[in-house]
Amino acid sequence: MSELRYDGQVVVVTGAGGGLGKAYALFFGSRGASVVVNDLGGSFKGDGASSKAADVVVNEIKAAGGKAVANYDSVTSGDKIIETAIQNYGRIDILLNNAGILRDVSFKNMSDKDWDLIIDVHVKGSYKCARAAWPYFRKQKYGRVINTASAAGLFGSFGQTNYSAAKLAMVGFTETLAKEGAKYNIHANVIAPIAASRMTETVMPPDILENLKPDWVVPLVACLVHKDAEENGAIFEVGGGHIAKLRWERSSGLLLKADDSYTPGAILKKWDQVGKFDKNAQYPNGVADFMGLLEASMKMGPNDK
Ligand code: NAD
Question: How does it assemble (predicted)?
Answer without folding.
Answer: Monomer.
